[in-house]
Recover the amino acids of this structure.
């Protein structure tokens, strides 16, 4: 069984060195956008590969990467990437000792800014050393000494050996000194004046101006002026203090000509619209929300899975030979399924014998319910209907049955789910998250040992069902406050359960609809605490933005359309499809049909059987 920790953390680029990231990196078009010599903001849900792309900009990654494009990219890139991983300790206000410092409100901001500056300068020093190591400039000990003497003097570093490694060590020690300064302040300072008098000289350093000064001196000293820019690559910006988020987004409008910003964030972060740069004029926006990826992610997934299979079996293998194809998601080459006697033809005919609403829909579209073949001639409407209703038909047949005495559909108990299998579904269910894809594929491959044999649909479905339930359990166990919706207290998992249950009801048990609601629009009237918990859901990848604005930031949830993560579909027993939308609050309005079909409205565990 694939463990939760492995599922969530497998190949998490945050914990890997750039060289390790490069060893498994598979090129995708988003990386090409990030290589451009301008400001770039990379947006997308957690786990979609933003950190991988950011680390691939660094010199160690580019020089280890084995790809036919690698040399061309190394020769063409016009900046040195300074990778800066957001540190949760920059958020002094969230530390356990913040309460003890509340009498000194300015102190927390000062310490936060010193911590950020120290991290940025440390990252810059690492990059300068790498520029020399990889011979982009002369790797000369005398020049290194002069550069480091300058840094020691300008950054207020205590006397040390003037080498890049010793400057880095001094900055690491400075971070430790900050913690000691905080402890000393808590126990020894009694007034704001006491606090200000305890400040070290380096507290006044600003990371932005310090980087401009240091890089300007570097290019003059090493005689590489006008050849390269420096890109400050701030990763996971949603975890950064608000003051830093504001400053970085303001900086996109104007900065030194030799400084670029490459920022990554998992929306939604809180940025005021009046300080944002204009996309297209000041910067390039790269959006990695699943519905913006199109065929890019499908092609990337195919390459990634082929690489995993080749590594395991030592030869090239078509993923379809291992995982098969899914009847609900396969491509147009399988059109025989709609022909008389085909698989989809049988499913539609079967359901139409007991479902009067489906029968009426078919007849109104010129389709014979007893022989639901693709319409001949130019009946595109009928052809579209068959494809649109196919997932609904399959799910109703599989998860419900007709009760002729009560003239309603009732839940059908299933020990195993066999609708969730096939390479297309495996690619789609990950919602653009390569970390999930790697974890799922490796989890399935453990079942077949060293032989390249096909994994049965039922075995694939069991793995995906377990992982879906694990993902739900992770969301359920997240710490967080309850919010009130329609007068009832609910948690984040309660919200997801309410939405998932309603979608299941509409598709599986309610009256047949060709376009049931499966997405939701965030109401503008929602309370702030509800918006905040939905932001957390977006960050965790539990809900997915459906309508990102092409040339603007997606930092406002109100009015946006979302759907549940496809990873939750096996848990709620719903198709991996996008249908019509309803308002978010509408999912919480109890309807008569909830009681008629016998599904609890507030306890998802009463809906599904897991064995």
């Amino acid at each position: 069984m694939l463990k939760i920790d492995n599922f969530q953390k497998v190949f998490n680029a945050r914990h890997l060195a750039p060289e390790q990231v490069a060893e498994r990196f598979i090129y995708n078009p988003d990386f090409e956008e990030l290589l451009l010599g301008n400001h770039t903001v990379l947006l997308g849900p957690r786990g979609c590969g933003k950190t991988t792309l950011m680390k691939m900009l660094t010199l160690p990654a580019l020089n280890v990467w084995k790809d036919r494009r690698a040399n061309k990219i190394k020769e063409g890139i016009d900046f040195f990437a300074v990778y800066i991983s957001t540190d949760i300790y920059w958020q002094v206000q969230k530390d356990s000792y913040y309460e003890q410092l509340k009498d000194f409100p300015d102190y927390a901001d000062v310490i936060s800014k010193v911590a950020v500056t120290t991290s940025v300068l440390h990252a810059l020093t690492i990059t300068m050393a790498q520029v020399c190591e990889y011979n982009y400039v002369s790797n000369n000990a005398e020049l290194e000494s002069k550069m480091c003497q300058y840094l020691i003097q300008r950054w207020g570093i205590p006397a040390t050996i003037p080498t890049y490694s010793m400057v880095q060590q001094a900055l690491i020690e400075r971070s430790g000194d900050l913690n000691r300064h905080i402890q000393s302040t808590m126990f020894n300072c009694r007034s704001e004046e006491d606090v200000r008098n305890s400040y070290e000289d380096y507290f006044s350093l600003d990371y932005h101006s310090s980087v401009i000064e240091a890089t300007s001196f570097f290019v003059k000293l090493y005689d590489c002026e006008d050849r390269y820019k420096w890109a400050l690559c701030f990763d996971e910006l949603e975890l950064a203090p608000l003051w830093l988020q504001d400053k970085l987004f303001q900086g996109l409008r104007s900065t030194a000509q030799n400084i670029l910003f490459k920022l990554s964030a998992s929306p939604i972060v809180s940025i005021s619209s009046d300080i944002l740069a204009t996309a297209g004029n000041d910067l390039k926006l790269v959006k990695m929300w699943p519905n913006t990826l199109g065929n890019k992610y499908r092609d990337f997934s195919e390459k990634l899975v082929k690489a995993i299979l080749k590594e395991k079996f030592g030869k090239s293998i078509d993923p379809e030979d291992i995982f098969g194809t899914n009847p609900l998601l396969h491509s147009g080459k399988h059109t025989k399924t709609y022909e008389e006697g085909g698989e989809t033809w049988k499913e539609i005919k079967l359901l139409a014998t007991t479902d009067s609403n489906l029968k009426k829909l078919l007849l109104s579209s010129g389709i014979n319910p007893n022989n639901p073949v693709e319409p001949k001639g130019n009946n595109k409407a009928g052809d579209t209907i068959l494809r649109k209703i196919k997932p609904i038909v399959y799910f109703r047949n599989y998860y419900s049955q007709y009760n002729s005495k009560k003239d309603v559909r009732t839940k059908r108990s299933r020990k195993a789910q066999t609708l969730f299998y096939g390479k297309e579904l495996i690619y789609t269910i990950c919602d653009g998250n390569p970390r999930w894809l790697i974890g799922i594929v490796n989890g399935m491959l453990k079942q077949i040992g060293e032989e390249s044999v096909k994994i049965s649909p039922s075995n694939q479905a069991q793995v995906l069902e377990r992982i879906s339930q694990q993902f739900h359990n992770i969301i359920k166990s997240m710490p967080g406050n309850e919010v009130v919706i329609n007068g009832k207290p609910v948690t984040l998992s309660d919200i997801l359960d309410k939405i998932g249950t309603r979608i299941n009801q509409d598709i599986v048990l309610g009256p047949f609809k060709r376009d049931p609601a499966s997405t939701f629009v965030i109401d503008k009237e929602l309370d702030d605490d509800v918006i905040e918990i939905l932001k957390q859901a977006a960050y965790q990848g539990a809900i997915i933005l459906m309508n990102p604005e092409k040339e603007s930031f997606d930092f406002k949830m109100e009015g946006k359309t979302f759907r549940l993560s496809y990873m939750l579909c096996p848990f709620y027993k719903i198709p991996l499809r996008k249908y019509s939308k309803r308002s978010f609050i509408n999912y919480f309005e109890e309807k008569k049909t909830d009681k008629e079909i016998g599904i609890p409205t507030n306890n998802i565990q009463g809906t599904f059987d897991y064995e």
Remarks:
- The CA atoms of residues 279 and 552 lie 6 Å apart.
